[in-house]
Design brief:
The protein is built from 13 helices and 19 strands. Strand 18 and strand 19 form a beta hairpin. Strands 1-6-5-7-8-9-17-16-15 form a 9-stranded mixed sheet, with helices on both faces. The chain has a 7-stranded mixed sheet with strand order 11-10-12-13-14-18-19, sandwiched between helices. A 3-stranded antiparallel sheet has the order 2-3-4. The radius of gyration is 27 Å and the shape is globular. The chain is of the alpha/beta class.
Length: 499
């Protein structure tokens, strides 16, 4: 089917090729007898955006223009020694000339995809794309044509920026991977269908989709084409159960429950579970606590159930008072509102049970009653007083994501993001920028390992900054089979292990 590119005015077609070519196609001027290529910085441009636009590394820009270490501003002139950057242009990639490739500026919401794509350029790209296999197509809702960008548009842009940082991290390694990006915001079904039938998308090894509707359309076509459709955004997704081309990047709920209870039983061996249930509030995690209770009953352990009203009262914990043993409390809600109704009482009770008096010899005996708290992925988004309580009670939670933003790797990505784009990562759980970074690294490493093809099971596992991908085959498609078990500590740091 031929695509009418005039109708698809919102589509951003671009290719980012990880290439080592360093030649420049810029005007030349002589300064103090030495010839230089020069580039004048435009509005809202950053060092990172310029590096991608010119095809040089950030290090080359800063080395030849030290003032760029702290960023650039409009009107600033960057100089590059003529002799160093006058090498031959890099070889064509799959027959596509560098001049035919549209490189986006990614410095601001308005700048992404601002370069126009002519019908001739688009046609040339489609003709030569028939030889491409080591490629990834991202279908994201950037909202390039929207009068005002939504939060979804901005998060999609953050994912893309993080994705580019991941590509940049691996750009110097052997093996080319082509990345094609399309804005699918507010496209109709016919337009999506035409885009999926284009040679660029249809011959990509992996297609990343933003929602269930596009996923279904892409998956229906992918079965016969041999490419994969990767969903890293939509959590409650079951399409992988029926379609062998679908990869579910988020661990399915049932698998997550299984892993979480496995980890809980291992870390709290010998503990009796205590389920807190609200008589008046939310109990949206009851499917988990029901599963947990059945698992323990199967092991011959009957959980204790405590129900409370508008707020948990200390007297309602009397059922544990005077009992010797170990108890792990699991609420049936993960909301911050419900957390506030029981957390302070649980902390006070826990502290009281842990306090013991010294004996006649001055020795402090171990407490006869030990209380722990086990919780949910929602709690990783807690801030302020709620986060402080997680630390003070040394809470353990299970989660698909590990938001260790203070860690060395995360700080490195965050610092590069701020330096190259001139803005902070948007706060979200999970962070879309980190998700983009991890997804890019996983895909590129896999494609290079498999010499241009993508194999969900080879290599089996990839641990990123925020996410771990460990794909497992179902009867048809593939799904992520790992989660994190995260432990909060009194000094404010977290530790974790992968299940």
């Amino acid at each position: 089917m031929k695509i009418n590119f005039k109708r698809l005015t919102a589509v951003l077609a671009l290719c980012l090729t990880l290439s080592s070519g360093m030649a420049l196609d810029l005007p030349v001027k002589t300064v103090n007898g030495t010839k230089y290529f020069y580039y004048k910085v435009g509005k809202k441009e950053s060092v990172y955006g310029i590096s991608k636009k010119l095809g040089v590394s950030r290090e080359d820009i800063v080395r030849n223009n030290p003032s760029a270490e702290d960023g650039v501003k409009k009107g600033q002139v960057l100089l590059f020694p003529f002799e160093e950057f006058v090498a031959e242009q890099p070889a064509d990639v799959a027959g596509v000339q560098q001049s035919d490739v549209v490189i986006p500026a990614v410095d601001s919401d308005a700048a992404v995809g601002s370069a126009p794509v002519s019908d001739e350029q688009a046609a040339d790209t489609l003709v030569t794309a028939t030889e491409l296999r080591s490629s990834v197509s991202l279908l994201l809702p950037f909202g390039l044509k929207a009068d005002e960008t939504s939060r979804q548009n901005k998060l999609a842009l953050d994912f893309y920026k993080g994705f580019l940082l991941g590509l940049d991290t691996l750009a110097s390694r052997k093996g080319d991977v082509e990345i094609n990006v399309f804005d699918v915001d507010n496209l109709g079904a016919d337009q999506i269908d035409a885009l999926l039938d284009s040679a660029v998308v249809s011959l990509s090894a992996v297609i990343i989709v933003p929602d269930e509707n596009i996923e279904r359309a892409a998956a229906a076509k992918a079965v016969s084409r041999g490419n994969y459709v990767l969903n890293v955004f939509n959590v409650p997704d079951t399409l992988y159960l029926d379609n062998p081309a679908v990869i579910q990047g988020n661990t399915p709920q049932r698998k997550m429950y299984e892993l979480a209870v496995d980890g809980m039983m291992r870390d709290f061996d010998g503990y009796t579970p205590v389920i807190l249930r609200s008589r008046e509030g939310r109990n949206e995690k009851e499917s988990f606590t029901n599963y947990l209770a059945q698992r323990y009953v199967d092991e011959g352990i009957v959980p204790i159930v405590i129900e409370y009203g508008s707020n948990l009262l200390s007297s309602e914990l009397d059922v544990l008072n005077g009992r010797e043993g170990k108890f792990v409390i699991v609420p049936s809600s993960g909301s911050v509102t419900e957390f506030g109704k029981f957390a302070h009482v649980v902390r006070s009770f826990r502290d009281r049970m842990m306090m013991t008096e010294a004996d006649e010899d001055g020795n402090i005996p171990e407490p006869t009653t030990i209380v722990a708290l086990f919780g949910y992925p929602d709690w990783t988004a807690f801030r302020g007083d709620a986060l402080d309580l997680l630390n003070k009670m040394e809470v353990t939670v299970y989660s698909r994501f590990c938001d260790n933003f203070s860690g060395f790797s995360a700080k490195g990505v965050e610092d590069n993001f701020r330096r190259w784009y001139g803005s902070k990562i948007i706060e979200s759980v999970p962070s879309q920028a980190f998700l983009g970074f991890d997804t890019a690294c996983m895909l590129v490493k896999n494609l290079r390992y498999n010499e241009g093809s993508f194999d969900p099971l080879r290599p089996r596992s990839f641990e990123g900054v925020q996410s771990v991908f460990d794909f497992q085959k179902s009867d048809n498609g593939y799904f992520n089979s790992s989660i994190y078990l995260i432990k909060y500590h009194t000094d404010g740091h977290i530790t974790w292990r992968i299940l």
